[in-house]
Amino acid sequence: MAYDPYQHADHLGLTVHYGNPGTGLLGLYIHRSRAIILRAGLSARVERCALAHEIVHAEYEDEPTSDGAWSAKREARCDRIAAERLIDREALLSTASAYEDVGEWAAALEVTGWILGAYLAAHPLPVRYGSMAQQNHQPGFIMSS
């Protein structure tokens, strides 16, 4: 069964609101109220990925921190776990066989480039999927959505 972050949020008792989570943010988890704020007007694909990411913050009971290094590690953890939930390995392998462009992979899998990049960084594809797969799983690689 495909992962549904909306059902997962509901199961965890999280409330999802739409508005402005802050400058440059797609979403924000607020621990004290167990609420997630998603930026209003996101595409369905970006919203789904942002919600999956924020759910991981909720599960780990993350609170804001001024420690940049710790914050970067938490964000990477949230991206990786969200990616593992949103991307089915077999569907990825099938998509990678059908398309050369990783942007097409992301679209076919209904995820953003950053989520696909997080998945590939943690779970590289076999060499038979070509140079695109090998180049694009490097840490820090960011693909456009």
Keywords:
145 residues; mainly alpha
Mean pLDDT rating = 90
Question: Which strand order spans the largest sheet, edge to edge or round the barrel?
Answer: 1-3-2
The number of E-state strands comes to 3
**Cα distance spanning the termini:** 24 Å
Overall body shape: globular
Helix fraction bin: 40-55%
Structural class: mainly alpha
Order of helices and strands: HEEEHHHHHH
* Major sheet characteristics: 3 strands, mixed
Query: What Rg do the Cα atoms give?
Result: 15 Å
How much of the polypeptide forms β-strand, as a percent range?
5-15%
Which blocks of ≥5 consecutive residues have pLDDT under 50?
136-145
Number of helices: 7
Structure overview:
It is a single chain. By secondary structure, the chain is mainly alpha-helical. The protein contains 7 helices and 3 strands; from the N terminus they run αβββαααααα. It has helices at 5-11, 44-59, 68-86, 89-98, 102-109, 113-122, 130-135; strands at 15-19, 27-30, 35-39. A 3-stranded mixed beta sheet has the order 1-3-2, with helices on one face. Helix 1 (5-11) packs parallel to helix 2 (44-59). The radius of gyration is 15 Å and the shape is globular. Residues 136-145 have low confidence and may be disordered.
